Fold this sequence. Notes:
- The protein is built from 22 helices and 38 strands.
- The strands form ten sheets. A five-stranded mixed beta sheet has the order 6-7-8-9-13, with no helix packed on it. The chain has a five-stranded mixed beta sheet with strand order 30-31-32-33-34, covered by helices on one side. Strands 1-29-28-27 form a four-stranded antiparallel beta sheet.
- Strand 19 (255-260) and strand 20 (267-271) form a beta hairpin.
Amino acid sequence: HHHHHHHHQMSCDYKLFQELRGxxxxxxxxxxxxxEADGFRVASSSRDKSxxxxxxEIGAANDCEAVVLGHEDFVTSVTYYGGGPKDTKQGSGxxxxxxxxxxxxxxxxxxxxxxxxxxxxxxxxxxxxPGLEFSLCECAAVLRGHRYQxxxxxxxxxxxxxxxxxxxxxxxxxxxxxxxxxxxxVGADDVEREQDKPVQVISDHEGPVLCLCELEDGTLASGxxxxxxxxxxxxxxxxxxxxxxxxxxxxTDTVRSLASLPGEIGYLSAxxxxxxxxxxxSGAAKVFMGHSALVYDxxxxxxxxxxxxxxxASEDCTCRVWDAESGQCMQVLEMPGCAWAVDLVxxxxxxxxxxxxGTSDGVVxxxxxxxxxxxxxxxxxxxFDAAVAERKAGDSKAQDAAQGHSPQGLKVEDISALKDPxxxxxxxxxxxxxxxxxxxxxxxxxSLKWECVGEVVAGPEDPASTGAGASSVVxxxxxxxxxxxxxxxxxxxxxxxxxxxxxxxxxxxxxEAADRFLLAHSLPQSYREQVVQFIIxxxxxxxxxxAAVPMDVTANVDPYARxxxxxxxxxxxxxxxxxxxxxxxxxxSKIREFNEGQGQEMRMSDAHLGCLxxxxxxxxxxxxxxxxxxxxxxxxxxxxxxxxxKEKMFPILDALRIxxxxxxxxxxxxxxxxxxxxxxxxxxAVDHPRPTAIEVTVLRLACNACVASPSFAQSLFEPLLNxxxxxxxxxxxxxxxxxxTLLLNCAVxxxxxxxxxxxxxxxxxxxxxxxxxxxLDMDSSFRALVGLGTLMTNDSSTRALAKDLxxxxxVSKAKQLxxxxxxxxxxxxxxxxxx
Length: 835
């Protein structure tokens, strides 16, 4: 071909020709419903908690065929699945397909759409197919398990579930702000089936996952708040799990939307960094520049001419049409509000697909390129243009207002000021309500509403120092991490992320509060000034900020003034705990008694018994054993007695526990380990069945070994944890105490760089702490909590894991038990807060 068609067709002229009205609030997501028809169908999901399926005939009436209800919070995403291979037999009649939705109610749902063949109307010739009519929509499955809002739900059309005939079931991928992608298996005929067991859980992203798409070759792509895109391929062979096969990190901010490119193994990504990028099989990206704010959605499709075009939707209130090959913008469509969603729907009426846009005013709008003039409704277009013009006028007004808002005095406006949208997320307005009181409102990009932060009151505290007219926002909820603060602000840092709490006390240096906040949420330092201004504005700092706030952060204000007083009570622990109590006489008489009953080959001589006795005495007096007792004889004695049957071995192990208390325990221990298979014996002793006496003595022995021979304790770590994990449910208090002490000692060893898996240790310790708090075993749960605090000190990954396991709830429960339980709980709260 001598010229490419798309070189000269670099612009297009989409015009509005339809509005689909019915949603009460923002349309957040769109999906084209591919059911054969003269017109087209599209599904929209909304903040109003519903999904609607629209049928639109070009040049004819359009209607809402279905309103899909069931989610309990706003529906963030909707995708369509045609239902797999269709019967080609004529007369099968009708069509079954599926919608997958994700919601802020933390669930994803799969819905079955059923269409029946429409009966031919009187007078119509029966030769033309009468088309399909909607007959029902039912929920097939509810997928539960994500901890936060589900951002995407997608049927994987190119991956068959294991072991099922292709029609019986299909795989679904879901993504969430909890940073996890889950893969589920859904039966094609399920109805209202509740599921909480995914087939696979994928959690390599370091931030929330906001979008998913499936590429032509079955690769799954996920985009995240960590600015990366990850590609996942399903292993061939028996292992049918997805593995990461690539990571793309070109975007500089959250990746918000992904779309597969038709006919090739490539895809498009839209990001909060205002760009859209196209990625080929080689991984090279082309950048589509043009949007001036976050890009929320991107879609691509083929034109009748065979070229590929893309459409994007942005917070800058525009949708853009792009030539996907060159990356050139072909048209900018201004919208009356924030453009959340866009889709492209091929149509026989025009060489270019229809463009469907979903916006913050709750309307789904359909735009067409070069449709016959008779199809355009002038009144509709005029009203739309007016709405766009009004939005633009409002924008510039809001900008002026935002600039006029000074941190010096609070500027109080009339309540009507809340009719205009905010200029940027987190913007604050102070308004006087009809009741004569003054309230602070904050603009939220997530809800697109002015949300009331609290009443503004003049500060009676200390009029002298703050000057008259000092005022402050009284937040409705002033508890944060179990402490009282003068203010606790909700700060929406970005859309798609739960709001962050900013605690602040009157008189505190705002720069220190800001640093604490940025540190706590790992936000970039570039936000510092903004956070400081936010604090000053919202607490009515009336003096010159520079005077009130010396830039020197080490100034005389101590941001932790309230928490320092409660400096850490118990965390972290730096030295291991040991079990030192011993009833020597009864222990030795038990050993003599059991020794009498042994056969010749396992019986100790008097010399052996004497040596054992002497070693125990020396150890209790903290004297060196190696110098005053014969270690050779001691090792012989152990080699005999440690072969006794389990029921009789425990006093020997107990004697060994005491010997580990001696001053030269490391030397003694290395000699014992060298001369006797202690490790194997201990591991075998705790095999089931095992008497409680063995459990207690082995655990206590291991605790003391943490000091005497950390390397031995370290080697025992996994075998003991694995075979004794149920100790956390033991009915015996000595077992519980020894178990939590061992976990605590291992935490101390981890901090001393021992080769112990901190993740495994944390989950065992957490389990023990919660079990023991529930049975009100104070001593054991106290030690487990100190272990948690020790593990979490200066380690953000274990802090994150502990939060995920539910540490906040556990700590608030423990706090109510008073005394040192409440003290260690405060320690843990401080660690969590500093994270």
